Amino acid sequence: QVQLVESGGGLVQAGDSLRLSCAASGRTFSNYAMGWFRQAPGKEREFVAAMSWTGESIYYADSVKGRFAISRDDAKNTGYLQMNSLKPEDTAVYYCAAPWQEYYSGSYNEDREYDYWGQGTQVTVSS
Q1: What angle do CA 50, 53, 57 make, to 5 degrees?
Q2: Are 66 and 105 in contact (CB under 8 A)?
Q3: How far apart are CA 85 and CA 63, in angstroms?
Q4: Cα gap 110→108, rounded to integer Å
Q5: 3-class secondary-structure state, position 3
Q6: Mapping DSSP to helix (H, G, I), strand (E, B) and coil, where does residue 30 land?
Q7: pLDDT the model gives residue 30
Q8: At 43, which helix (H) or strand (E)?
Q9: In Å, how far from its chain's centre is CA 88?
Q10: What burial class does residue 69 get, using C-beta atoms within 10 Å of its C-beta: 0-12 exposed, 13-18 middle, 19+ buried?
Q11: Helix/strand/coil (H/E/C) assignment for every residue in 38-80
């Protein structure tokens, strides 16, 4: 049973930083791509960042490029999303996700590519 558990969300002020974690269990973490998505109230879930299973390919939404950084520690079975220079428009529930397919290669920016999702962690940025 694959499980993803996010943590690290909270209430911060504009300009602050947060680091989200995604702890994975149930399979070999290093063989799978990972992604981060977010959903703001009243809006559809949107892509934030993704990393290929090799870690060599990284993708960001234009809205977070230059401010957010995705990373992973395979020894700890944990992925991260470092968020800097946070803005009120970054307020959302953040989800980590992983595909079912080992060694998956795709566009990584569509939620239909991911089969496993965490429960989400709330990030609130005040102005």
Answers
A1: 55
A2: no
A3: 12
A4: 6
A5: strand
A6: helix
A7: 86
A8: none
A9: 18
A10: middle
A11: EECCCCCCEEEEEECCCCCCEEECCCCCCCEEEEEEHHHCEEE
Q: What pLDDT score does 101 carry?
A: 92
Tokens representing 15 are 């300009």
**Is residue 72 within 8 Å of residue 57, measured between CB atoms?**
no
pLDDT along the chain (127 residues), means of 10: 95 98 90 96 97 95 98 95 98 97 92 96 97
Tokens representing 31 are 């063989």
Q: What is the dihedral of CA 103, 109, 111, 117, to 10 degrees?
A: 60
24 vs 35: CA distance, rounded Å: 12
